[in-house]
Amino acid sequence: MNPSFEEMRGAMVDIQLVARGISDKRVLEAFRKVPRHEFVPEEERQDSYSDYPLPVGYGQTISQPYMVALMTQCLDLKPDYKVLEVGTGSGYQTAILAELAREVYSIERIEGLSQKAARTLERLGYRNCFIKAGDGTLGWGENAPYDSIMVTAGAPDIPASLIDQLKDKGILVIPVGGSLSQVLKIAVKDGNSIRESEICACVFVPLIGKEGWAG
User: Fold this and answer.
1) Could you name the CATH architecture of 5-202?
2) 4 is catalytic
3) Candidates 63, 106, 114, 148; catalytic one
4) d(Cα 17, Cα 21) in Å, to the nearest integer?
């Protein structure tokens, strides 16, 4: 008998996350709860909890579970936080953030993907997510400032607009580097300066927009 999605989700958390050092209890609980299989195409569902990225259409991917968890843990989210996500994708990372923060504002460049993610999140009962299609490199200024910002695509550098929209002492997590490989960075806003640290090598689709890569 094949394992259920719930059983696969539990194994994913134990084997892919806990065993690799993801220790934030709230993050782990969110991963045990959010049904990852609901955020991938029907033909990919049996691989929903596998240890690699999956295609979600429009040339985009849902990231490896460990990378989603690592980036989420780096944000050190609190229940009253307001978060900006750049790159909604299928909405899975959005749902994880919504489990951990008060409000999540998410921008997706591809309108069809944005609409599909919004429908999935609404169907699953997430009411604290706000999705729009647009240039994520410019942020979402009318709802700024944000306690935390997550960018789920690789940028040539950290977009200045996102730094401007981050609260003082706020944390931004972003892959930075070339179009084929990047380094995952944490940027902490400290007054008029930014303190950056590197976490690990990574590979993300390019962040396209005015303050990212050209389309």
Assistant:
1) 3-Layer(aba) Sandwich (3.40)
2) no
3) 63
4) 6
